Fold this sequence. Notes:
This protein is 42% helix and 17% strand. By secondary structure, the protein is of the alpha/beta class. The chain has two domains: 2-133 and 299-369, Rossmann fold (3-Layer(aba) Sandwich); 135-199 and 239-296, Rossmann fold, CATH 3.40.50.2300. The protein has a five-stranded parallel beta sheet. Strand 6 (154-159), helix 6 (164-174) and strand 7 form a beta-alpha-beta unit. The radius of gyration is 25 Å and the shape is elongated. The two termini are 41 Å apart. The relative contact order is 0.12.
Amino acid sequence: MKNKFILTVIYILIFFYFNLLSDENNKILKVGLLAPLSGIYSELGSSILHSLQLALEEIDDENIFIVPRDSGFNDKEKLNNAIQDIRSQGVKIIIGPITYEEFEDAGKYDDLIFISPSNINSEFTKNIISVGVSLESQLSSLINFIKKQKKNKTLIMFPKNQYSELIEEKIKKLNINFFKKFIYSPNPEILTGEIEILTNYSQRKRSLELRKKMFQDKEDEQSIKEMKRLEQLYTLGDVNFDSVIIVDFGNSLKSVLTSLVYTDVDQDKVLFTTINQWFDESIFYENTIKNLYYPSVNYKSFKKYNDNYYKRFKIYPNEITILSYDALGLIYYAWKKNGEIKSINDFAFKNKIKGKIGTFSFKDRKVLQELDIYKTENNKFIKF
């Protein structure tokens, strides 16, 4: 399997190399690529290369060429060597780096422009534009959705980890006043207790028991009816929020959802939302939640991209490769529109741009995506 993967990468590199040799005029667009083509993340690098091959085939312009180099993964030496090698080929614009941690090194190359699939920073820096699905885009979409549902007491939750401060910074920049902010432990054993306190679970249980005692010895019809109703409940009384945004993923997200349901948060009264989950089907098997809403890229476009990728390469892509695909499309659009790309300002488009992941806007030197809202229902992703 490993040998097959290495041969695939070599084939793709040869494909790009011979395309580059065909340069016989100055009216060409050379685009560099920084990707982990070796090491533990090499399959991601290969998937990104495949996505650009797909994009090239769809663009169908013989004057655009890719110059890929192995930048490793958070490897400063490899990254800088790759950037310098790409620059030596006369390339002025590069797709990458993949991670925000590599921005500091990329930022030193003032003569180059970087289009990164990272989603950490939506604002233009001096020479880097991030086109990932930013937290700002996701939160803006969720807030608009929640307002339309006439909810006004929104709780935002996120785990205490290396991204906590960044999330708080983004909330502050968006000037959003949430009803309550709750930072929880990533340890599931501690998490449940924290959410019991958040939801006032013990008091609501005691309220139920006290209410039951009022009717347990009474035999009139109304008391018997009320007692039957109370027997169906786990707690008495509502939580003090009417909607929740959970900024989390994977098993940690599922632990939060389970804890909220365990503490008897009424799903008919409280709107459950989270951030982009890239249509992770494992959420279908999280039986605790009736409806979970989240913002995401256009599902039809995402599925079409995945299907085309599989048809071409007989393997499904890493989900973030669609961002590299769109990055090349944005670069090509800027190049065709301006005749050349001189600086980062050539991407300050006045009009919105439609890509595979959705519609981009570039207002005030900031990249934002217009995202759709989806909910999980009957093992399907339903556009709301």
